[in-house]
Amino acid sequence: MQPIANTQQARAWNGPEGAYWADRYDRFDRLNGGFNDALFTAAAINEHDRVLDIGCGAGQTTRRAARQAGSGQAVGIDISVPMLERARAVAAEEDVTNAVFEEGDAQIHPFPPGGSDVAISRGGVMFFGDHVAAFANIGRALRRGGRLTFICPQMPDPDGQSAQVFAPVNALMREPSPAARGMMSLSDPARVHEVLTAAGFAEVTTTSVAGPVHWGRDADDAADFFFAMSPVRFNLDSVPEQVTAKAREQVTAALRRYETPEGVRLRGAVWLVAATRP
Ligand SMILES: C[S@@+](CC[C@H](N)C(=O)[O-])C[C@H]1O[C@@H](n2cnc3c(N)ncnc32)[C@H](O)[C@@H]1O
């Protein structure tokens, strides 16, 4: 067992919230998968690269990195045991033999110095208590000239489709659930530049990337998924049942407008961040 600095996050991602995500990893992969191509185009992984996937979760991006680095390797690191168990199981099912998964806190994990060519992350780098220390640690894991590429959430656009569809629930949200604390910590590009520069990275860029967010087969399926998500349940637990029922009716009606033969998709946007280790 490696040392952990982010104990609150470790508790949360090893508790019911982490288990919930790991059990429904395929739903979350569909939800976030619309940004994979942008992440992988920017990461430009070569056939021999050694890739590090930070906060790899159930490992969809680690598996893709491993396939792309055919004669290299992808290492997924995560603080959550249920996520890592899922990642190992799916990689074995899909016969991805050059992906390995390690338990650890990326902020302080003793990565082999200079042992990676590329570090990537799909939404796994926002939860550090000390971002500068964490990215400096990730930087030490990269060889000189190595690349860091990740995506992280933007502040919701108040006029965007998601804000409008989920407005009846957003009005009831008081605070992030324990696992979601820190989720928006890198949503300001100025902060991203400041953190990565202080951590020793150069050539930092932040690019807004739009993509489809797949919520479900149809409006009812999408509403089921949304209302069962940990951050939503955490906030609605203390709300009177009839208020939740009304909000659910309104959200389902709004989702109905976005039903297509391919499912319910809302436009979303993330920050695509790239930097290099000088
Ligand atoms: C929002 S999930 C994203 C998971 C995965 N990258 C994906 O796209 O499905 C965030 C992940 O970061 C992990 N995480 C949070 N803090 C971490 C830390 N300090 N070190 C390593 N992993 C961490 C969580 O356990 C979780 O699996």
From TrEMBL:
Keywords: Methyltransferase, Transferase. The keyword Methyltransferase applies. This is Class I SAM-dependent methyltransferase. It comes from Streptomyces scopuliridis.
